[in-house]
Amino acid sequence: MEQPKGVDWTVIILTCQYKDSVQVFQRELEVRQKREQIPAGTLLLAVEDPEKRVGSGGATLNALLVAAEHLSARAGFTVVTSDVLHSAWILILHMGRDFPFDDCGRAFTCLPVENPEAPVEALVCNLDCLLDIMTYRLGPGSPPGV
Questions:
Q1: What is the CA radius of gyration of the chain?
Q2: In 10 A of CB 57, how many CB atoms?
Q3: What is the pTM of this model?
Q4: Domain around 20
Q5: DSSP H helical segments within the chain, as ranges?
Q6: Phi/psi-derived region of residue 136, left when phi > 0, alpha when psi is between -120 and 50, beta in every other case
Q7: Pairing of strands 43-48, 90-94
Q8: Across 35-44, 97-106, 135-144, least confident range
């Protein structure tokens, strides 16, 4: 059965609490892009929170600023402009606080689930389920935005 048309995300951002986590989480997003869970043209960013215990509001604003910087550069602007955000579909996912039951945090906790429709057999974690829900169930038909 063919997967229904989902949202073609312009940017997917994963916020994380610690600088040490950024590279690992970026790599995890890239692995999902190679597995074709995320379209090849989607900009993937793992962004450190600007300050310790900044909260999801501060992390969201920081992630949006980083997305605007990258999209502005990609569009050829020499300064950051909000014009690039008008037609962008941006998904911001927050890692949240430390999770004592898994070293990689809540997002990468493996689930006892199988995805028979996946192009590659792989472990399924919370992040994969969230991407599927946002891309194919909640997002379709929505206008550009965050």
A1: 15
A2: 8
A3: 0.85
A4: 11-137
A5: 19-34, 55-74, 126-132
A6: alpha
A7: unpaired
A8: 97-106
Rounded percentage of the chain residues whose pLDDT exceeds 90: 42
pLDDT digits (tens, 9 = 90+) for 48-73: 888 776 677 788 898 999 999 999 99
Say how many domains are in the chain.
1
120 lies in a domain? yes
**C-alpha span between 25 and 144 (Å, rounded):** 25
27 within a domain of the structure (yes/no) = yes
DSSP string spanning 99-122? Answer: -TT-TT-GGG-B-S---TT-SS--
pLDDT digits (tens, 9 = 90+) for 9-33: 999 999 988 788 889 889 989 998 9
- Percentages helix, strand, coil for the chain, rounded to the nearest 5? 40, 15, 45
Residue 4 placed within a domain:
no
DSSP-derived secondary structure letter, 125: B
